[in-house]
Specification:
Blueprint: H1 3-17, H2 20-27, H3 31-45, E1 50-52, E2 57-59, H4 61-88, E3 93-100, H5 101-106, H6 108-118, E4 122-129, H7 131-139, E5 145-148, E6 158-171, E7 182-183, H8 185-188, E8 192-196, H9 201-212, E9 221-226, H10 229-237, E10 243-246, H11 251-256, E11 260-264, E12 269-277, H12 285-296
Parallel strand pairs: 3-4, 3-5, 7-11, 8-9
Antiparallel strand pairs: 1-2, 5-12, 6-10, 6-11, 6-12
Length: 305
């Protein structure tokens, strides 16, 4: 991308985030450098592109026109890059993705490793946060797409399910339940229970499942609330309680015999992991290739490795 194209990208980012500071984070420039890019465009067109007040930044009439054409120009460059990449077989670029905790820590590393074997020149940058924070990053344009779990209905984004998941009760091998295939919800209320923090997709679906079966959170004997699945697993291994976690989170520990999965008599806890993107997002050829790889990946093979 040429310097002039980069100015257009900076301009579009300011228009979409309505913030010079947020734009500086997204495009990896200092805030003064972002201002200089916009100033250069305004000097070239001899008109103001933004109307600035103390609290807001909005596009001027000339800015509205430039924004429309800038998005079109950037889309054309992306299309050209894609077509040339097909001919030459050389695909390069950067991909900035956000992933919620379960996907980012326990699924995505293996996927990226396999992707890099085919596309050595594409750089992948991953932000790992809980689902709520990933959606915030997507809304500000800090990431190009997200891979998340949890309730998505309140967000105005495009959603596509890509991975199936199931959650189980997790216990240490010395626990009496380790010899059982299933336990009842009523039995869960009698054991110290370890929960994830608010905003976690795992916590959302667990609460939803309990509620649908007439169990309130206050009915549980919550002994700990922890901010990471790693800390929960360690607490379970040390006999501090039981929890409900994704099969992806514990696949290595179960294989090694350090943890045991137990089903729930009242029903299975299942969900999808989603690919989320902003509507009408313009994506580069490198992002397109990574998205295609993610969608066609055979995830079940990770349990066999």
């Amino acid at each position: 991308m040429s310097l002039e194209d980069h100015k257009l990208k900076v301009f579009c980012t300011v228009a979409e985030t309505k913030s010079f500071s947020k734009t500086s984070e997204i495009v990896h420039l200092t805030q003064p450098a972002v201002s200089l890019q916009i100033q250069a465009l305004e000097e070239y067109y001899e008109t103001k592109l933004f109307d600035r007040t103390s609290n807001t930044i909005t596009l001027s009439p000339a800015g509205e026109v430039l924004y429309k054409y800038a998005k079109y120009i950037l889309a054309l460059y992306s299309a050209a890059e894609k077509e040339i990449g097909k001919i030459t077989g050389h695909t390069k670029g950067n991909v900035v993705v956000g992933a919620s905790t379960t996907i980012g820590n326990f699924i995505l590393p293996s996927v990226i490793l396999d992707f890099k074997k085919q596309y050595t020149k594409i750089k992948i940058n991953v932000h790992i946060e809980n689902t709520k924070k990933i959606m915030d990053l997507l809304n500000t344009g800090a990431i190009e797409f997200g891979l998340v779990e949890g309730e998505m209905s309140k967000y105005k984004v495009t959603l596509e399910p890509i991975i199936e998941d199931e959650l189980f009760v997790i216990v240490p091998p010395i626990h009496p339940w380790a010899k059982k295939k299933i336990i009842s919800i009523s039995e869960l209320t009698k054991e110290p229970f370890i929960f994830r923090e608010e905003g976690s997709g795992t916590r959302q679906i667990t609460e939803k499942f309990f509620s649908s079966r007439g169990l309130k959170i206050r009915d549980l004997n919550i002994s700990l609330t922890l901010g990471s699945t790693e800390s929960i697993k360690e607490a379970i291994e040390n006999g501090l309680g039981v929890s409900i976690l994704s099969k992806w989170v514990v696949r290595k520990e179960v294989k090694c015999g350090n943890l045991v999965t137990v089903g729930i008599k009242e029903g299975r806890i299942t969900r999808n992991f989603y690919l989320v993107m902003n509507k009408n997002a313009i994506i580069s050829h490198s992002v397109t290739e990574f998205l295609s790889f993610i969608k066609s990946y055979s995830y079940d093979r990770l349990f066999k490795d």
